[in-house]
């Protein structure tokens, strides 16, 4: 055994203590995942060595045959996992094994569901896979040396999973990492070749690296113990390089879980090989659930990049637009240089071609899912709909395709679920309808009961109801679909086109002319509070509404700008009144200008409240209302 020097005892970061307690005392139901996690980490270590060796071939130290070995000792009750990857220095071991970056434990604990089997699958997602060793071991030892360091700069890390760990400097002849798990009482099942083989086949068959276990053999005549031989127990070929016909669904699903650190199967996947001017393979997955950092646009994202089957980069974000940041997968190119960097990727014209093709492939995959598995797509939309709504602004070339994938609530339903596609909306459109009508607002209850919908209900015209914070911004980029323009029913002067008969149009003109005097009186009473007053064609039941000017910001956009500290341009609403409503008729007959002004202001404030807006002067509204109530009670 190597002589240990510079031996010291250090305490774990507080979060690691929490995590270890959880591993040791809670996650019992799916213990075998410890091997999946340790093999996954070993595979990453080998990938990192391959990448660094591109520019520093001396790191391979003559040992270019990269592999992972899993062995066991029944008598000593140990399981050992060894790789010849990048390895760790003393500082690496302290950093990676004693702390967790980016509050990994806090996020991990927050996402626990109480279902032990599901919770155990979360481990890898939060970068805490190494600690799963303590589910089955009461002591873990790590022997490692970073590639490129001298043999005398090896490191020995050990811990019993309590509050501290020991670290010492040792001699280690070979680069890479060896992890020895001292199994707890009752965990002897894992010190067994058949059991370990099954776990490797179940979880790690797709790892594109040989995973070797000792070959089980009888001793030769005259030998006490047979010479140690190793055999590869996984397929050890890159799954995406194999023909689709040879890959089972289960293999695709396990590979997804490996690269995404997810415990659920993906909703869909697309495996494709492109040949010709560009040559590359891609394997893209649509997850079943949203990652915890989906709305952090700066969070790591992107595909795993391989060049000629050599791992080059995790999270290469240049191959898909930002609104598809939830897509997981790998892309393996024959046309890129092995020493490619993120900066080069951003400028390479080959990447633009690949990005365009991969984006179309993802959108086709989603179209197929929506068509063939509508219930699954409904789940996808709940998880990723708001991110997909970023698409039309970011990806002009695919705007129509993205629009077809969008889902909305509408007046056709009564539960507020976003399930209506634009194609379904147009299929139900009235004869002669050449517009797609929509209304934005803060809540479904607010827009569903909005006075702006009264004329649409009367005529049986469906209106899309948009209540996500992003919706008004989305519609500023989505001007038409399938040749039909979008119309905000709360904006400008509503024109129903062919949906109004000639008689209705003529009658509206006559009423507007007859009420010109009332329009002027209300305009004088409301003064600077409004930009315009006019007779409404939208109302059947309510006395008045506020419409937005054609070029003005709606309430959602104003709130977004205000929340981000930006200056919001001044704008004034348009006051529209229903000439046949009893309150308006009473207002028209009011002779006293002061009382007329109070009534006009009350109607204005009520219209603002119905639109979901806040009052500029609530005290004045209450005062006028109280004054009116007193008059009525006398």
Automatic annotation (TrEMBL):
Positions of the UniProt region annotated as A: 1-342
Compartment list: Cytoplasm
Entry keywords, A to Z: ATP-binding, Chaperone, Cytoplasm, Nucleotide-binding, Stress response
Residues in Histidine kinase/HSP90-like ATPase domain copies: 30-187
Presence of the UniProt keyword Magnesium in the record: no
InterPro entries reported in the protein's UniProt record: HATPase_C_sf (IPR036890), HATPase_dom (IPR003594), Heat_shock_protein_90_CS (IPR019805), HSP90_C (IPR037196), Hsp90_fam (IPR001404), Hsp90_N (IPR020575), Ribosomal_Su5_D2-typ_SF (IPR020568)
Positions of the UniProt region annotated as C: 560-634
Binding residues for ATP: 37, 41, 83, 88, 102-104, 125-130, 177, 342
Domain of life according to the entry: Bacteria
GO CC terms: cytoplasm
GO molecular function: ATP binding; ATP hydrolysis activity; ATP-dependent protein folding chaperone; unfolded protein binding
PANTHER family: HEAT SHOCK PROTEIN 90 FAMILY MEMBER (PTHR11528)
Complex and partners: Homodimer.
Function: Molecular chaperone. Has ATPase activity.
UniProt similarity note: Belongs to the heat shock protein 90 family.
Protein name, UniProt field: Chaperone protein HtpG
Lineage, broadest ranks: Bacteria, Pseudomonadati, Pseudomonadota, Gammaproteobacteria, Pseudomonadales
